[in-house]
Amino acid sequence: MTVPRVQPAFLVVLGGISAALHVGKLPPALPVLGQALGVSLMQAGFLLSLVQLAGMTLGLAVGLAADSLGLKRTMVAGLAVLSMASIAGGWARDPQTLMLLRAIEGLGFLLASMPAPSLIRRLVDPARMNTTLGLWGAYMPFGTALALLCGPLLILWAGWQVWWWLLGAASSAMALWLWLALPPDRGHGTAIAQGWFERLQRTLSSPGPWLVALTFAVYSSQWLAVIGFLPSMYAQAGVSTLIAGPATAMAAAVNMGGNIASGRLLQRGFRAERLLYTGFVVMGLGGIVAFAPIWSGVDPRLAAGLRYGAVLMFSLVGGLVPGTLFSMAVRLAPGERTISTTVGWMQQWSALGQFAGPPLVAWVATRAGGWQWSWVVTGGCAVAGIALACVVGALLRSERRGDAREVAT
Prior knowledge:
Elements: H1 8-24, H2 30-36, H3 41-50, H4 53-69, H5 71-89, H6 95-113, H7 116-123, H8 129-137, H9 139-158, H10 160-181, H11 189-194, H12 196-204, H13 207-236, H14 241-253, H15 255-267, H16 272-291, H17 300-318, H18 320-332, H19 339-368, H20 374-408
């Protein structure tokens, strides 16, 4: 069978985008699901976050197992699970069934996304590592934006069930393409499997994996909460779906700019901690401008434009954070054999953040009777991110001094 020729590392990014489509497919469907299946606001929050349940509980275990199972096989299996769960979800008739299948989709998403940084490291030249990992960091916003852009139109035209079935078919095709086009997995899985306890111990006893994991958690919780609920916010404000869909897609898409820029800036020698500071400071300020009740007396159209501009900056500059963290995960892993384990640990905490963020924002909005206090959640996460960036900076400075001493001797 002949398959299109694509650079292997770029094909891995395409596989991640295919998985991310399933994360982004839900927000544009939430208003329709509320009418069709009776999904409440709190249930909507859990539907947004349940896709992260597997990552929250199994990220480290999958990271440990990936090298033994094979990175390529793990990613292909994840896309296959996503495909089956999405196709089955099109026949759901109540929120509980959809939640169960959403959790299964989360397992597929974890299997499909977790091996990617290690695969990229294997497939690209070291000189292109930071740039390519920055590109990989854009898989999530690109897939989410594509789903947010296409979803509303397709749902209006054919219904949410067809949207679920179409994305299931796309993931199935992507799984087949990866299987046929990527080079086979290395044959040293058994040796790596035998050292799983050592890899686990080295990973969890080193500060680097903990720092990248916790930092990703406070980033992902606020980003998914804001982007995931934008369609619902616009729907409650009476904004047309034809306007809200592209506006939300743009807010997700600009995050790619920060991800890609982070790889290029790191390649040019910018310090990782400075990129993290910048990302979290702008996210904190963007959340305040976008949601805090500070616009009384201002023309409503001007206020709406300023709020939306703040959301764009929140997502764009915030994109510096994940792109930087993917590069740091490879760099701060205790050794080459612990990269997948470190990424799995980072995915686990990222999933925990994404699981907790949307329901927390939904709870605050329910208690407040609106979205005006959402900035308290996003601001708290931003402050925590700045504090973690300070610790990251101290660790990196210590490593740089150690490297300088080695060169001197």
